[in-house]
Design brief:
Elements: E1 2-7, E2 10-18, E3 21-24, E4 27-35, E5 41-46, E6 49-58, E7 61-66, E8 69-77, H1 78-86, E9 97-100, E10 105-109, E11 117-118, E12 123-129, E13 132-137, E14 142-145, E15 154-155, E16 160-164
Antiparallel strand pairs: 1-2, 1-8, 2-3, 3-4, 4-5, 5-6, 6-7, 7-8, 9-16, 10-12, 10-15, 11-14, 12-13, 14-16
Length: about 160
């Protein structure tokens, strides 16, 4: 099965060959992908290099925290992608987006205020977890609304931190 994965507006073609082999944009890789305990933490070994990521589902795809950076990923199979294209192309992001904590941690900084205009990629919250500071960024342009946490608050995984309209 072939999948199209979009991360930060760049598309990647991923074809699963078998349990331990994929093609990423036509290049073969040997992979070992497994969850760590009953948490949203995953271990990926790809061509001998080890990676650890927090991965959890979001309304419009997946949130992936890797090396202290949060990525939004959308995964579609080829057929689904073709159907969307035939129906008029990409869906425009509308409505309210709720920024949720990708893992438990402590709010270190909130460099935005209610009513502030933000652009996609702007830092909304800095969350410390496992002695790492993670910048949680805006996935779209909008206006910050309903900040639900304060600096110094401890938060749980999937807790809503703020919203962007």
């Amino acid at each position: 099965m072939k999948y199209i994965t979009t991360i930060e507006e760049k598309e990647y073609s991923i074809e699963i060959i078998d349990e331990h082999h994929i093609l990423l944009d036509g290049i073969p890789y040997e992979v070992d992908f497994d969850s760590v305990g009953n948490q949203p933490v995953f271990s990926l070994i790809m061509n001998g290099f080890s990676y650890e990521a927090y991965i959890y589902p979001e309304n419009s795809g997946w949130q992936v925290l890797l090396h202290g950076r949060l990525y939004s990923a959308n995964v579609e199979d080829e057929r689904e992608k073709r159907l969307k294209a035939a129906a008029g192309g990409k869906v425009i992001e509308r409505g309210e987006y709720h920024l949720k904590a990708p893992m438990p941690g402590m709010v270190i900084a909130i460099p935005v205020q209610n009513g502030q205009k933000v652009q996609s990629g702007d830092v909304l919250v800095i969350l410390e977890s496992m002695k790492m500071q993670n910048e949680l960024k805006a996935p779209k342009d909008g206006v910050v609304s309903r900040i639900k946490v304060n600096v110094g608050d401890s938060v749980e995984q999937n807790q809503t931190l703020l919203s962007v309209l």
